[in-house]
Amino acid sequence: MTGHNLMLVVGARPQFIKSAPVIEELLRRHKRINLSIVHSGQHYDPDMSTIFFHELRMPKPSFNLHAGSGSHAAQTAAIMKGLERSISTTKPDLVVVPGDTNTTLAAALTAAKLQIPVAHIEAGLRSGDFTMPEEINRVLTDHCSILNFAPTRTAVRNLRAEGLSGSIRFTGDTMVDALKAVTPEVKARERSILAQFGAQAFAYVLVTLHRPSNVDDLHRLKEIQHALRKVAMRLKVIFLVHPRTRSRLAKLGRPATSMKESLILTQPQGYIETLALLKNARCLLTDSGGMQKEAFLLHVPCVTLRNTTEWPETLVGNANRLITNPKNIPSLVFRVALNENLRDRIGKLKNPFGDGHASARIAKLIEDTTVMH
Questions:
Q1: CB-side neighbour CA atoms (13 Å) of 365
Q2: 21: which of 53, 169, 259, 359 fits an S-S bond (Cβ 3.0–4.6 Å)?
Q3: Which of 61-70, 165-174, 361-370 has the lowest mean pLDDT?
């Protein structure tokens, strides 16, 4: 029997992590699937792209669209144009899109317009905040998809509420699978990674901030900087500076890297390094969706600089707390970080993200669907 063509489209750091275990599962156990991987080039900084293909042992993409940066419309349009050519070349039976980036939406729209079935990994997430581009991307992608792989029961309910019951497949979250796969390497390297930053386990706050709502407003970014300096008076701060944040700091005339003893600003790290730093942090301050979830899975208290989250499961038991005013960062970070019992309490919470076998379920459903079509 001839094989069935599957196209998986990725373009940004979180998508590489979500896709890696699915790719491995497909290549190892589903030989009837001919897999082609398309990299949109949405993230083109080596710290945000190339290193992840290496660390997650992902095969080299069949196509790189080199879409680069630009406005949401320009970036989405560039990806759609490039992808239309790739689809014409490979003629996939199914296009799989993970996550909620512009790449996700561009791939879903392009495939749907070409009458190619779409499957969405991490479907059904909702924050209710339509000022976030990701929320628009999620909703539209789910409505383009014949298969919506829901990571949580909450996601299933969200999809049902929008009349998408026929497309729902409850699989669990592939990021649990990814985390499980690299845990031995994280354990083996965490001591040397901490030494690299002159950090002691559970004696620092890890920071990642990249959302336009936090870093594009230079007055707000100044307030965040001031708040981090206050935190650094009592606790070491390690700030992994996203390329977007780096460019905004440059506009303020501030350095994007600094190895001061109490406040370290450094470039983004690879997946293993980031997990090692997160696992040993006293607390995480972030605006990333994926890192809220990883903190929960690693039992690390989290403070999220946003007014909503697409992962409400993380809010249970104060494992994650939302904050909107940068001036309140120091007091809340200290309250969370210096709470001696919080980490243990998070460790006792039920894990709503699955059993680490989401990728096997998704790969089987993908094969069944491509065979059927």
A1: 22
A2: 359
A3: 61-70
**pLDDT greater than 50 at residue 1:** no
Q: Are 132 and 216 in contact (CB under 8 A)?
A: no
Q: Decide if domain 4-173+354-372 falls under CATH 3.30.70.100.
A: no
CB contact set of 363 (below 8 Å; sequence gap of 6+): 22, 25, 26, 29, 30
Could you tell me the two tokens for 156?
A: 């299933």
What are the tens digits of pLDDT across the range 269-310? 999 999 999 999 999 999 999 999 999 999 999 999 999 999
Fold held by 184-347: Rossmann fold (3.40.50)
| pLDDT computed for residue 120 by the predictor | 98
Question: What's the CA gap between 255 and 252, in Å, rounded?
Answer: 9
Half-sphere exposure of 356 (CA within 13 A, CB side): 7
Residues 340-373 have pLDDT tens digits of 999 999 999 999 999 999 999 999 999 998 755 5
Contact 213, 244 (CB under 8 A): no
CA 6-8-12 angle, to 5 degrees, is 175
Residue 103 CB-half CA count within 13 A = 29
Q: Where are the alpha helices (DSSP H) in 145-202?
A: 153-161, 174-196
Q: Are domains 4-173+354-372 and 184-347 of this chain identical in fold?
A: yes
Q: So where are the chain's domains?
A: 4-173+354-372, 184-347
In the block, tokens 């495939």 appear at 111
Q: ∠65-38-182 over CA atoms, to 5°?
A: 125
What is the distance between the alpha carbons of residues 108 and 30, in angstroms, rounded to a whole number? 23
**Local structure of 27: helix, strand or coil:** helix
What's the rounded Cα separation, in Å, for the pair 359 and 140? 23
Which token pair is 119? 């499957």
Residue among 126, 300, 303 nearest 208 (CA):
303
**What DSSP state is assigned to residue 322?**
E
List the one residue out of 167, 147, 56 whose CA is nearest residue 96.
Answer: 147
